[in-house]
Amino acid sequence: xxxxxxxxxxxxxxxxxxxxxxxxxxxxxxxxxxxxxxxxxxxxxxxxxxxxxxxxxxxxxxxxxxxxxxxxxxxxxxxxxxxxxxxxxxxxxxxxxxxxxxxxxxxxxxxxxxxxxxxxxxxxxxxxxxxxxxxxxxxxxxxxxxxxxxxxxxxxxxxxxxxxxxxxxxxxxxxxxxxxxxxxxxxxxxxxxxxxxxxxxxxxxxxxxxxxxxxxxxxxxxxxxxxxxxxxxxxxxxxxxxxxxxxxxxxxxxxxxxxxxxxxxxxxxxxxxxxxxxxxxxxxxxxxxxxxxxxxxxxxxxxxxxxxxxxxxxxxxxxxxxxxxxxxxxxxxxxxxxxxxxxx
Length: 344
Known about the structure:
By secondary structure, this protein is an alpha/beta fold. It has 13 helices and 12 strands.
């Protein structure tokens, strides 16, 4: 298994990227190709205490870097020798099994769509992060790639999320729910009404396990394994969850530091607090997969440290080995919405 890593993408590149990738190559039984400016990559390796290139690590030189200020839609075209463009081209040509980048989300999505291409029949690629919830996590599909959607897009997101939860996360029969302002069937706008019917039809046919509408609070309480949303509402859910996690973490810290007695209590529950913090830490997941792209692409957080990159490589390895893309290709005919026949 070979994972291609954009060594120049992200706030902490190349140092954190290189360190995380080297750790992954050492511990995860994968080969790694670091794409970026060779001199900068070698310096980062030396700073990490690695003087000789490991046998399962190689460097692919790329002289340009896609910056956060670059136009996301055009950056990969204008900078043809960027680590992003070179890495995705290698993926397209079969020189690796998956691609990981902590660079610009917009540029990565545009490049993955136009260079690596979508799976034939998939209308839009979706970003599908794992969101922590009571009892584990759920797949949110989509979380921002597609602000405006059709019922067919959302039907495909349901399949993409369901197959990902099943094949990558190991959930045998993922519960799929539609994000809405109420649980009742009649709730929501026209898009939600029409999407509900196509998801219900897919559920009745036994193709997905559709459980109906779900409100954001019930999603956070573990009410579904896959939450289907247009990118606009999905992004609001994701950002609200992230904000609540930060708020709770800071408030708990203030509570436990407020007095000598509470500081003693903090010591007694330190392990439990560390475990709670770990469940809310995106670095432990690794990144967000772009579902619907014809090859596995993982978007790591822009501020990823070495631990996050390590986990992103692990996630990319599991994604590539899951058979997810083949499963989507085999079921693409079930993901189309056909117009109802007109009455004669």
